[in-house]
Amino acid sequence: MSKGKKVLKVIGIIFGSLIALIIVLNIVLNIVFGIQLRNKLAELKAQGKPMTIAEIVPPPVPDEENAALIYKKVFALLETEEIKQTTKIIGELKSFSDISQWTNEQKQQVYRMVNSRDIQYIYELLEEGSKKPKCNFNLEYEDGFAMELLHLGKMRDSARLLCVRALLETESGKTEEAFNTLLIGLKISNHLKDEPLLISQLVRIACDGIIIECIESISNSKDVPIEKTELIINELSTHKDIEPFIKCMDGERVVWGMQGFKQILEGKISLGDTIGAENTSRTRMLSSLLLHLGKPILKKDFTCYLTVMSKIRDSSNIPYYEYVKDKILENIPKYCILTEMLIPAVDKTREQIARYQTYIDICRTGLALKLYKAKNGNYPGKLENLAPDFLNEIPVDPFSGKNLIYKKSANGFILYSLGPNMKDDGGIDARTVKWEGDYDIVWESNS
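Predicted structure:
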């Protein structure tokens, strides 16, 4: 045998051995990581965490109790050309809480549109829907990433419409009617709390934020109506529950993560689907090859995703001031690409939830201060004076673990939370510094 043939034979043996080693290693890792994945799934199931779509889907609601059926009528009206023009103009307003920032032309336009027959009918439907005990839009959760969530934008449009109506009612001296309109808005946004999706809860936060800002603005310019103010304080207390955010983490895991991983592992998502390549026979063949070679890594990635999402869910009950940023995500292996893609922006989400709870508590406490003054002629010397007659208990600042900071002034008060930087900036409002640098979360009243 020539020397050249011997070299080729050796190379062939080495190459064949490497292929055999890779195949054996792939089989071993596939078995090992498969066992780890099954153990993680069994662990989560034993802990009682939802593992299927059926477990996270909100229970059916009888038609006579379901606000969604009424809201769908509103959404249909919002799609008509005339109403779309109205919502566009309202969306361009500089503020949904301060009518003084509107131009005279905008005031005239909005007043005319809001008093139109169709918009008045929308308000009637919204009020009717707000009185229903439950809301279920019967979303197609099994569609995963293809699921339509068209109702969320319409819910935000509805909140804006209600705030505009409240401002116009206040301008006309109808403060009690304005507070009732804002109470309707809070009840409507809270109808999203049973949807087990993070995006739904973030929209709920946005809707409540629009309404709370309007409540504070009106309360600073007018005497608050006692009965309606008490109702708003009570309604806001039902918005603080952390449970919807825990459920939405279960929903994120089941609807997006688990379905996504399973579709890839089962070969239901091709290379063309994942990277945008043309779905030809060649790409399908390449996708199949990569799937078989990469299946162990996918299983490890899947296990990592389930572990991290479980930690995120379990950390939801930890107060923000005790939450250690980045700890949950710092140990994700670099090869767990899908985990990094599917995991929500954890720190940002935790901060948004803490902000939301702070806005609610500041609003409740600020309204309680207004009620105290209405009944006693002056603001209290300290927040503790508000309990139990005006608040069941004094709220704790999610960013400090202590009471909100309250300072009584000659004619009013300043009430604030330390905010995300977790330090006292002297009650500097975010709007004053245009949301840049250091600031607190503030309600300041000069009356």
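Summary: The chain has a mean pLDDT of 87.
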